[in-house]
Write a structure and sequence with these properties.
The chain is an alpha/beta fold. The protein has 18 helices and 21 strands. The protein folds into three domains: 3-116 and 260-330, FAD/NAD(P)-binding domain (3-Layer(bba) Sandwich), CATH 3.50.50.60; 119-257, FAD/NAD(P)-binding domain, CATH 3.50.50; 368-435, BFD-like [2Fe-2S]-binding domain (Arc Repressor Mutant, subunit A). Bound molecules: flavin-adenine dinucleotide.
Length: 460
């Protein structure tokens, strides 16, 4: 079995910078990612991007080359197409590539597994023809496939980014249905002074909105009660707007309500997590150096709390320095001096994030969907059924599994988990921390028995 000083899971901005920073200090490092190439969500498939696709995806996407290129000059073991499905408390990491399982060991592990799009459970969201905005962007990044004639519904910076990318691709959305409310501007205003440290980013966001406006795309503000109509596939999106019900015919709806940390691995390790009220999600508890409640495990990037790509990059540096110091590979002075510029970046990004969190909150209808809305799409469990479990005495997410198989499908609660916690907290009048989350067990992603068996007799 191969052993390393440091293993890094996830090759997004956080994992890539952590790898480069750790190698620069002479540590033995292993980087694993389930994608075929480095980049993470934001810089996905950048290595295969031609000029035309680059022009569609824009300069923020192309910036990723500054993080990806150094990976080819450093001495780290880098394995792509590697899905990590178990980490144990002794630093063993189990992963699969091409149907073959492997095991390695590291003295310290940085989990940099990023974010997932928050589920947007509205009536009809499971119909064919409905995807997330992020999924439509993945199609562009990985295959150059452009979603045509889509209605984008929800809110948040990624929704506007993808709208602009679709415009640049010559296939503008047919409408944008925004759930952001005017009151959100008032709430966000108090965070504007701290966000101004990132004035260029704010200006870019305003530029996106101007581009959407000048493309003449119908823009419905302060929309609510989103419902996707259709019996076997999406046929229309209806919603309330200025006191009326609007119905838009479409067979392509792209939903978005921000992103939340991907906590499957950190949960499976039983690390301590807490509820973030502003971002309405759980994240693992960490020290200023990204070290979790288990001293040999650190978290960097969006997986530790949503901060965005620039913050993830800075956190990767800080976490690598923190890990190397804890392994006595660098001194405390080296760690502190090395982290200083990245801490300044993090301070500015935190100011911007507070503003964005207040400006684009999750609407009530997504946190507590109507009774007939499906929540667990793997097992077809509705919000009404979850509420009926509560009436029968169910207090926590794990019990919903026994009551009705909620969260027991192939996604293992990744998508429904946060909504289930929201519903149980509201129905039982308990705090989200008191309700908790699904107990996640390895393997965190489906693997075959053949893969499992392939571990034996290989010396791994
Ligand atoms: C679909 C989607 C699209 C986004 N697009 C944009 C965008 O265009 N612009 C923008 O500013 N922000 C975007 N974001 C937000 C953006 O992802 C983050 O701010 C930034 O990428 C976070 O960086 P990170 O390093 O923390 O994680 P990520 O970039 O998400 O990287 C995490 C990496 O971990 C890997 N991973 C996860 N689990 C495992 C596992 N079990 N085994 C092995 N590897 C694993 C993933 O394959 C991924 O490469 C997007 C988010 C999502 C969910």
């Amino acid at each position: 079995m191969k052993t390393y000083d440091l293993a890094i899971i996830g090759a997004g901005p956080a994992g890539m910078t952590a790898t480069t920073a750790a190698c620069a200090q002479g540590a033995s490092v292993c980087l694993l990612d389930e994608q075929q190439t480095p980049g993470g969500q934001i810089y996905r498939s950048l290595n295969h991007c031609d000029e035309q696709r680059g022009a569609i995806l824009g300069e923020d996407y192309l910036y990723g080359k500054t993080l990806i290129d150094p990976l080819s000059t450093i001495d780290a073991d880098q394995t792509f197409g590697a899905t990590v499905w178990r980490i144990d408390e002794n630093g063993h990491i189990y992963f699969s590539t091409h149907g073959q399982a492997h095991r390695i060991q590291a003295r310290h592990i940085i989990i940099a597994t990023g974010a997932l799009e928050r589920a947007s459970p509205v009536p009809g969201w499971t119909l064919p023809g409905v995807m997330t905005v992020g999924a439509a962007q993945i199609l562009i990044k990985s295959s150059g496939l452009i979603t045509e004639g889509a209605v984008l519904a929800g809110t948040g910076p990624l929704l506007y980014t993808v709208a602009v990318q679709l415009i640049s691709a010559g296939s503008p959305p047919t409408a944008i249905v925004d759930t952001q409310q005017p009151a959100n501007y008032v709430t966000a205003a108090k965070y504007l002074p701290s966000a101004l440290a990132r004035a260029a980013t704010l200006k870019k966001g305003l530029g996106y909105l101007a581009k959407i406006r000048s493309a003449g795309i119908p823009f419905y503000r302060a929309a609510g009660d989103l419902t996707i109509e259709g019996s076997t596939a999406a046929q229309a999106l209806s919603f309330s707007h200025k006191g009326h019900t609007v119905r838009l015919q479409t067979d392509n709806v792209l939903l978005h309500q921000g992103v939340i940390p991907n906590t499957q691995l950190t949960r499976s390790l039983r690390l301590k997590h807490e509820w973030n009220r502003a971002q309405r999600c759980f994240h693992p508890q960490t020290s200023d150096w990204g070290i979790s409640s288990q001293s040999n495990i650190s978290i960097a990037g969006d997986g530790g709390g949503i901060g965005g790509a620039i913050a993830a990059q800075a956190e990767g540096h800080v976490a690598a320095l923190g890990a190397l110091q804890s392994l006595s590979l660098i001194t405390t002075e080296q760690r502190d001096a090395g982290a200083q510029p990245h801490r300044q970046t993090l301070k500015k990004e935190a100011g911007l994030r507070r503003f964005l969190d207040a400006l684009y909150p999750v609407p009530e209808e997504v946190m507590r969907p109507s009774d007939h809305t499906i929540i667990c799409r793997c097992e077809d469990v509705t919000a009404g059924e979850i509420r009926s479990f509560v009436k029968a005495g169910c207090t926590g997410p794990n019990q919903t599994k026994a009551f009705g198989r909620c969260g027991m499908g192939p996604c293992q609660g990744r998508y429904c988990g946060t909504t289930v916690t929201e519903i149980l907290a509201a129905e039982n009048k308990l705090s989200h921390d008191a309700v908790g989350a699904y107990r996640v067990r390895a393997p965190i992603k489906p693997i075959t028995l053949g893969e499992l068996a392939s571990l034996t007799g290989t010396g791994d």
